[in-house]
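Propose amino acids for all 369 sites.
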């Protein structure tokens, strides 16, 4: 036993370390050196075996006390000091290895024959741009799993009862032991006889064929709140698939989708609009009639407004989901240049240009003349 390292040194803890500190150190090292998580070379396998052996002793108060008294001799059958027995792989190591396997590698000692929550369902609901802005109530249909009305979800024929599975004793799980170069591994799996239920159905329900679940179509009304945006989700609690063994139903997630508007561009709760105006309107000024989602609005545009100018109409945007206040409508002025002019129009524009011609041209102004 002289070649064995001190167990406290193996785990990297002090001799007065608490049980929680020892467990934490073990988990860290076991995760690092486990054959399934490391490079699986011999050094890692040996280290994992050493760490596991140390924790089997120090993680047990009685064994730790014997180790503190007698050292490694406490577990050496030849020495006869403590009579605690040697380290035999993982056969008796359900506490330490089971915990780390559950935490990091997905093993399980969780009972599977209890209530099981139903699956969440997802659907897409298409509405219009305006319906998203003002809110709407829609009727939707979906197929989902319900608890069987005939057997009440038990899966057994009405008037009959299930019996406890003899293989797993009602736990729904059995233990399987396997051997490897690293020791003996105990794996907990669903009982093959009852498929993890813990009970055997001798006479299955004819309506659901023993599943306890019946698929049906349901029609419901969904209230879409005003201000909802593209891609947002409405969650209806308990409207998903039915649970099993008295477990709760899942949720229904409704994903909202709507197409772009012909004129408006939405940005959160604000709207943006490109407003075409004529050359004369920007020169002389004009009272513009602005389209909004809920009607028309007037805006007095000043003479000489430049193309690209943006003005804001407060409270003409989208309603906020929670506060109820509205965003703004931002209108950008876009001057429309006529492509076809009559001879008279051309003559008038030329006369206007002559009257409006500056005394200095652009190049004179650049040169400072």
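Proposal:
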């Amino acid at each position: 036993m002289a070649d064995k390292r001190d167990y406290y040194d193996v785990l990297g803890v002090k001799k007065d370390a608490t049980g929680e500190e020892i467990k934490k150190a073990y988990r860290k090292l076991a995760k690092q050196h486990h054959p399934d998580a490391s490079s699986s070379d011999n050094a890692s396998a040996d280290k994992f075996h050493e760490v596991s052996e140390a924790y089997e002793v120090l993680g047990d108060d009685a064994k730790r006390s014997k180790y503190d008294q007698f050292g490694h001799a406490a577990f050496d059958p030849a020495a006869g000091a403590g009579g605690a027995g040697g380290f035999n792989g993982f056969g008796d190591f359900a506490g330490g290895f089971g915990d780390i396997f559950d935490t990091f590698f997905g093993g399980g000692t969780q009972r599977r024959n209890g209530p099981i929550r139903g699956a969440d369902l997802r659907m897409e609901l298409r509405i219009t741009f305006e319906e998203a802005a003002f809110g709407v109530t829609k009727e939707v249909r979906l197929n989902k799993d319900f608890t069987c009305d005939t057997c009440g979800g038990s899966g057994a024929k009405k008037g009959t009862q299930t019996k406890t599975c003899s293989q797993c004793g009602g736990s729904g799980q059995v233990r399987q032991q396997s051997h490897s170069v690293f020791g003996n591994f105990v794996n907990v799996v669903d009982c093959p006889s009852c498929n993890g239920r813990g009970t055997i159905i001798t006479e299955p329900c004819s309506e659901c064929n023993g599943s306890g679940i019946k698929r049906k179509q349901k029609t419901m009304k969904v209230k879409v709140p005003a201000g909802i945006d593209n891609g947002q989700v409405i969650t209806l609690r308990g409207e998903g698939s039915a649970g099993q063994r008295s477990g709760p139903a899942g949720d229904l997630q409704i994903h909202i989708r709507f197409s772009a508007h012909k004129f408006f561009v939405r940005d959160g709760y604000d709207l943006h609009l490109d407003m075409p105006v004529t050359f004369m309107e920007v020169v002389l000024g004009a009272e513009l009639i602005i389209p909004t989602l809920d009607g028309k609005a007037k805006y007095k545009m000043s003479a000489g407004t430049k193309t690209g100018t943006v003005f804001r109409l407060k409270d003409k945007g989208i309603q906020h989901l929670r506060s109820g206040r509205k965003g703004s409508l931002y209108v950008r002025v876009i001057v429309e240049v006529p492509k076809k002019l009559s001879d008279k129009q051309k003559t008038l524009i030329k006369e206007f240009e002559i009257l409006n011609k500056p005394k200095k041209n652009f190049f004179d102004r650049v040169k400072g003349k």
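DSSP finds nine helices and 15 strands in the chain. Residues 7-105 form a domain with the Helix Hairpins fold (CATH 1.10.287.110).
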